[in-house]
Write a structure and sequence with these properties.
Layout: H1 2-21, H2 23-26, H3 30-35, H4 44-54, H5 60-71, H6 74-103, E1 110-113, H7 139-151, E2 156-159, H8 168-177, E3 182-187, H9 194-203, E4 206-211, H10 216-223, H11 227-240, E5 246-251, H12 256-259, H13 262-271, E6 275-280, H14 296-310, E7 316-319, H15 324-327, E8 337-340, E9 346-347, E10 354-355, H16 364-368, H17 371-379, H18 398-406, E11 409-410, H19 419-442, H20 445-450
Parallel strand pairs: 1-2, 1-8, 2-3, 3-4, 4-5, 5-6, 6-7
Antiparallel strand pairs: 8-9, 10-11
Helix pairs in contact: 1-6, 8-9, 14-19, 17-18
Length: 459
């Protein structure tokens, strides 16, 4: 089997080189080559969608695919195609499925890691400062997590923090040691300079997702004066070197009109971004303010805006909550991803700071089979309406019950937060969103596909 897969990978690499010679002519043959590598049931719907895209050369998404040849360095593009598309998405998925069957627990497609709790900024509403600045996961531990993950079929690793680029040297070392993996980082972008960009060009498997809260006014309001200019400089450097990068957007009650505007989408494309992650504000942390939580009207606005712009804008977008219908609800708790903080605590999600396992004391598979992660495994989806995926923000009471049942503890070392107190913060918003989300769900294909009652009382 391994020999057969190796032969197939060689064939796909050769096909990619052939594609490079004449993208216009050979892009339509892309899925024919992919089909030689994967089984019929692997990513079947996604492959069908790609086929439809590449059969419309005048369409928005065909132009987006073609921009990968005009805007991205050739060697970087080839390397990322292999490490992300072939390893993380195709070959890795098969191994993950086999491990899910073997271990009877969730196996992550992606692992989110915090190399450090330190950060050079202090953004309003960010919980990172609550961890302090002294926590650092040593290089040996980071390497061990990645090595263990690859054995489970996980080839996609995402850094958060703190500010991950405080650990630039170690990040590059891990890229070098694991060239078969793709590494992405949520970063404030202020530490990206010419030297680091050159290192990215050299290793070819590191992609930043830069946090921007809108334009200068909105970004500097939350992140501090001068941040926007520093971030813009970083994006200019990346674009000039033909390096891929994306934007990470947290929409709040204060900036949603800007984040969801056509002007802002056009600006992200003009900056050179190839993708954008959208998150809604979460009131995590004892001192987290609740007035930044987006209202149900604002969340519905983002639901429609992102979907509408997908039809017309050459920008790949992910809406972390509102895209729950495409991934069957919540993906946390190891179902598709998990989070390990700088102290080594293995958490279900970057926004759920509770744990019963530490990676310094347990292996990755032991944590995945632990009580908290099995609570997630046995209770997902948390709502039949996948527009209400989250056990905290959308279904308050669900997370607190799971934490109580398994005895997990708060991982906030400075100000531990009682899970019931945290859950109570989300009740008013969750009740209003439930009405809106159920209306949207019943009018979507998701409801038709689900074929079950989609309302769940918010307690």
């Amino acid at each position: 089997m391994k020999v057969t897969n190796k032969i197939k990978k060689i064939g796909v690499k050769q096909a990619l080189r052939y594609l490079d010679k004449d993208p216009d002519k050979n892009i339509p043959k892309l899925m024919d080559w992919v089909d030689t590598f994967v089984k019929d049931d692997v990513f079947a719907s996604q492959r069908k969608g790609i086929r439809e895209i590449i059969n419309e050369p005048d369409g928005n998404w065909y132009k987006y695919i073609k921009s990968m040849w005009s805007d991205i360095d050739d060697d970087v593009r080839r390397h990322l195609f292999e490490s992300f598309f072939l390893n993380a998405c195709l070959e890795g998925w098969r191994t993950q499925d086999a491990c899910r069957e073997k271990y009877q627990c969730g196996i992550p497609w992606a692992i989110l890691l915090d190399p450090t709790s330190a950060c050079n900024l202090k953004c309003i509403g960010c919980w990172a400062a609550d961890y302090g600045t002294s926590l650092n996961m040593d290089l040996k531990t980071l390497d061990s997590i990645i090595t263990q993950g690859k054995e489970l079929g996980t080839y996609f690793y995402i850094y958060s923090g703190g500010e991950p680029l405080v650990r630039k040297k170690d990040i590059i070392t891990l890229c070098e040691k694991h060239p078969d993996c793709t590494f992405l980082s949520f970063t404030n972008g202020t530490l990206i300079d010419e030297e680091f960009a050159d290192e990215m060009l050299r290793v070819k498997n590191f992609v930043p997702a830069i946090s921007v809260e809108g334009f200068e006014k909105e970004t500097d309001f939350r992140r501090g004066d001068g941040t926007f200019k520093a971030v813009k400089n970083a994006m200019d450097i990346l674009k000039s070197k033909k390096l891929p990068f994306g934007i990470s957007c947290c929409y709040t009650s204060k900036n949603v009109d800007v984040i969801g505007s056509e002007e802002y989408f056009d600006q992200m494309i003009d900056w050179g971004a190839k993708f954008a992650w959208f998150f809604t504000y979460m009131p995590v942390g004892v001192d987290a303010v609740t007035d930044l939580i987006a209202t149900d009207e604002q969340r519905e606005f983002m639901y429609h805006q992102i979907r509408d712009f997908r039809k017309t804008k050459p920008l790949f977008t992910l809406d972390f909550w509102n895209d729950g219908e495409y991934v069957g609800g919540c993906i946390a708790g190891g179902r598709r991803y998990l989070h390990i903080n700088a102290n080594g605590d293995v958490e279900p999600c970057a926004f759920i700071h509770y744990s019963d396992s530490n990676i310094k004391e347990k292996t990755l598979i032991e944590a995945l089979q632990g009580p908290l992660f099995m609570q997630y495994h046995n209770n997902q989806p948390f709502n039949n309406n996948h527009l209400r995926p989250c056990p905290l923000l959308d279904n308050p009471g669900v997370l607190s019950k799971m934490v109580d049942d398994c005895g997990a503890k708060s991982t906030d070392m400075m100000h531990p937060e009682d899970v019931h107190t945290l859950s109570d913060k989300c009740v008013p918003t969750a009740k209003k969103w439930a009405v809106t989300a159920d209306k949207l769900w019943q009018n979507s294909n998701g409801c038709a596909n689900c074929k079950s009652k989609c309302t769940t009382a918010v307690k």
